[in-house]
What does this fold into?
Amino acid sequence: MDPSDASRDHLRTLLLGMEQVWLEAECARYEFFLDVIRQSPLDVAIISLDADPQKAMQLIAQLAAEAPDLALLAVSGKNDGQAILQALRCGAREFLTAPVQLEEMLTALQRLGRNRSNGEYTSGTNGTPKESLVVAVIGSRGGVGCTSIAVNLGATLAQHPGRSVALVDLDLALGDADVALDLVADHTLADIALNIDRLDMTFLRRSLAKHATGLSLLPHPIQMEDAGLIREEHLQRVIGLLRASYTHLILDLSKSFSATDVTALRMADIILLVAQLELSSLRNVVRMLLALGAEEALAERIHVVLNRVDSEADISLRKAEETIGKRVYWQLPNDPKLLIEARNQGVPLVALAPRSKIQQSFVGLAHALNGTEDPVSKEPKSGWGKIFSRSR
Ligand SMILES: Nc1ncnc2c1ncn2[C@@H]1O[C@H](COP(=O)(O)OP(=O)(O)OP(=O)(O)O)[C@@H](O)[C@H]1O
Ligand SMILES: [Mg+2]
It folds into this structure.
């Protein structure tokens, strides 16, 4: 509901670009809007205040009384605190500043549609995620297992029919998530960076390649020199948009601590810091915990994951935890034969060896991240968290 043609056009373009939205009706006169909602069963009504704030407030109050289940979203470009307060008091559930940005609209609609009943991250009935989880995977040195973890965790999470999972390869120069999934994508992060001004959900969704496991992949640029095209603000938009339309977002980071890596870390809900039970990796975990820990918000999101646990040369878990001064969140067993086969074939473990110990460990990790199991506060009975550790 917006009497101004210009701002109504803007809202229309925005809404038509969103896959999960059906635009049922448009209205240019406050007086006619009640008739519109009587004729159409709506979930959300967007009401612009600026053409006539008094009439708009009156309409919001009437709608709130007449259709209490209808979620009302007020929009104004005037940044007037009193008007915002009044709109909310009249019954609006959300307020957005005009001109409305796509991410803001998506997040507002997500909040309106949110109905978390069991704490799981799943899609709502209309395909909109009720809540999304962004997991960044970062390594304590090269070859520690980040891509293997990102790909296999992603494919495992994607097994649940209620979830939509996307993996973004942020190892911009040397990433190989596309190899691990044997996917050739039509688009990469470079195309998105080049088209950032006309980026909408349809374009973004089309840019992701879908794997048979259900996992979607946004690959790193094909040309190495194109890695430089991707700037922090591009990534902020991409992560913002993807988190509004996928239930789980996995970010496979580079080992260079670049500006894009730091942006991704800041936008993640959970940071999996991957290590192995050997000196150089553990020493870097200490250094990284110090560096990242300087930002309080980041420190509490970091979870240390030990990969390839079981080799004879391993430092003991107790000693590792003493060294890094933090409990280990998860342990994944060493299985070089299976991992090499998976990488060479480009098939995730969930398809290649669903009953293997390592895949079962990924299932456990997926549960833990979804909040259905907490390996730190709960001592695992025969759990994957402990079963693979060795003490010397
Ligand atoms: N749990 C494991 N057991 C045995 N081998 C593993 C395991 N995890 C990873 N590997 C092997 O270790 C090698 C490096 O793994 P991966 O590419 O996942 O690491 P990375 O941290 O992403 O490396 P890079 O620094 O190149 O990005 C691969 O050959 C992979 O097969
Ligand atoms: Mg990698």
Notes: Residues 146-147, 171, 176 surround magnesium ion (ligand 2) (CB under 6 Å).
